[in-house]
Amino acid sequence: MAEKKYASGPKGGGPGGGHGPGARGGYQKPKNAGKTLRRLMGYITRRKLPLLLAALCVILSAVTGVANTYLLRPLLNDLVSSMTAAEKVAMLGRTLLKMLGLFLVGASCTYGQSAIMAQLAHRGVARLRSELFDKLQELPLQFFDAHTHGELMSRFSNDADYVQQCLEQSIVSLISSVITFVGIVAMMLYTSWPLFLVTLLMLGATMGVFVLRGKKSRELYRSQQQALGQLNGNIQEMIEGLKVVKAFTHEEAAEAEFGELNEKFYSVARDANFYATSIMPLAGNISNVGYAATAIVGGVLTFVMGFDIGGLATFLQYCRQVTQPINQVSQQINAILSALAGAERIFEIMDMPPEVDEGNVHLVRVRETEDGTLSETTERTEKWAWKLVQEDGSAILQQVEGDVRLHNVDFSYVPEKKVLKNITFYAKPGQKIAFVGSTGAGKTTITNLFNRFYEIQEGSITYDGIDIRLIAKDDLRRATAMVLQETNLFTGTVMDNIRYGRLDATDEECVAAAKLASAHSFIRRLPDGYNTMVTANGANLSQGQRQLLAIARAAVADPPVLILDEATSSIDTRTERLIEKGLDRLMEGRTVFVIAHRLSTVRNANCIVVIEHGEIMEKGDHAELLALKGRYYDLYTGQSVLD
User: Fold this and answer.
1) Distance (Å, whole) CA 338 – CA 355
2) Number of folded domains in the chain?
3) What's the CA angle centered on 384, arms 381 and 385, to 5 degrees?
4) What radius of gyration, in Å, describes the C-alpha atoms of the chain?
């Protein structure tokens, strides 16, 4: 089977956010409604007994409604018969009790089907969301490059909500309406087939209204959804960029653009709602005309052919009811199609091929014996080793050192454009390697390749002499820590966010990591210290405090290799000095890769790699590169700038 490719279009050296269709992308029809429905029903059919009870309730609810109407026939016929008054009263009481019994059965069944389907639907969609979330953890970063966050969030919110409503209400309502319609038609034929021919003409005209006006309404609703998406997108952009709008005095232009989009939405929404709301009045008038025609013909049959009064009244009641299930079917079909389209979008993600990981080299804790040999242990130690399984099943333990080498590495996000070309360098254990170059040169891409967020096309990358493609990805990433320019904190306490670096870390280890990162001092001054809640990605903390927590998170992971990607670029000078103290302590004894725009922070690097347009232009330490008087010299002396 051909491997599925993920479209990604980052410009420059790092992955960029792809442009998706937005939250909903407008009204869509499912591509394969039958297949999607069968798969979707699998989420509520695991518990057979509740589903069978719900189906029984749906059938009984529809049947009792139809049967209740038919009780009018014997009731009216007996009332106009020659029975005595007492007999008529007794008969009326019995019939009313039957109607009450049927009503109670129908009401109980309606409540039962609603309660059961609500439970099944909520449980099924909860499982669907859980599987979707689990799937996202398995997908490679190329997938997230090609899909916006809002687009993915809409799968969990809008699409899942549509699916839940479909499973809970729409499908049940559709089945109930079909059963009711078939039951009413059967009873009309049983009551009087000549009168049904008159009603059939009315049904044909009503169906024509639903089909023609409904088709036009759906087309306009698609346009309305698209216009609404454009309007919402404009509102979001303007609110997020309000400072820029005001700074460049573009308020009038923004108002004009919004006014144009708002007018477009108003126009299509008006037409869509006009066609949608006109369906019921038209169908109602046709039904009234059909009802009158049926009553006239029924009256003639009563006087001429002896058709009973009860039968005529019952038939006329069915004539009133027969269009209701048609209307409900029309409404539920649209809701079901929208839900199935949403389910297809969810299943499309769930069917994506997961991130490939064929590595069989694992990271294990080891203990060093007196003779210097290593033995695997489950206890917490300061030593780690690579566990290499041999063909005969035996295992070799190789101590983790932090030796990283790239040899003739080529990489491209898309085949037609190489981002890295023939990249070769090495980092011995404990060395500090710095990358400098223009934005988009490929610096961040190199670090992403080392973590196997992306796979190289040519060349090799080794970690302690082991090709990283042979190392299991989780183990490779556990042996590396990253401190990024953009710090992501999660809802929880400060302690929880530090422990995110290593989930089995003790409180004492987290506090020690905070001290190492120079974060302990500010944490103690927080309202609840380490138990202070972090909310909204650290909105209650300063940028510097968030960065210090990121350094503490990396410290508690205690990896042999550390990657610092623009870790101090957004920090003021005073905070930068504080952070650099934490970084200096964190970097001791580790292999470190540093990406920095401020060249003053990389002067003490063992090797500075100058990258431009995906190629290495210069390599050497600070003094060597200044002596070359090349690109680094120009950047450092200010004759050129990093763009």
Assistant:
1) 30
2) 3
3) 145
4) 36
For residue 136, the Cα-to-chain-centroid distance in whole angstroms is 8
Residues 82 and 173 in one domain: yes
Instruction: Kindly state the greatest CA–CA separation across the chain.
Output: 124
What pLDDT score was predicted for residue 20?
34
What is the distance between the alpha carbons of residues 108 and 71, in angstroms, rounded to a whole number? Answer: 20
**At which residue do the structure tokens 């700074």 appear?**
247
The predicted-structure confidence for 465-499, as pLDDT tens digits, reads as follows: 999 999 999 899 888 888 887 788 888 999 999 99
Is 300 within the bounds of a domain? Answer: no
Q: Are residues 420 and 449 in the same domain?
A: yes
Length of the chain: 643
- Segments forming the whole domain that contains residue 380: 361-399
Extract long-range pairs of 49-56: CB within 8 Å, 24+ residues apart. 50/116, 50/119, 50/120, 51/116, 51/120, 53/112, 53/116, 54/112, 54/113, 54/116, 54/117, 54/120, 54/172, 56/109
Apex 368 CA angle, 363 and 372, nearest 5 = 120
Q: Say if pTM beats, i.e. exceeds, 0.85.
A: no
Burial of residue 348 (number of CB atoms within 10 Å: 0-12, 13-18, 19+): exposed
User: Is 280 part of a structural domain of the chain?
Assistant: no
Q: Which residues pair with residue 423 across a beta bridge?
A: 409
Same domain, 128 and 151: yes
What one-character DSSP code corresponds to residue 599?
G
Do 578 and 544 meet the contact criterion of CB atoms below 8 Å apart?
A: yes
Q: What is the pLDDT of residues 77-111, one digit of tens each?
A: 888 887 888 888 888 899 999 999 999 999 999 99
Digit-coded pLDDT (tens) for 511-545: 998 988 888 989 999 999 999 998 877 778 888 88
- Based on the fold, state whether residues 385 and 460 are members of the same structural domain: no
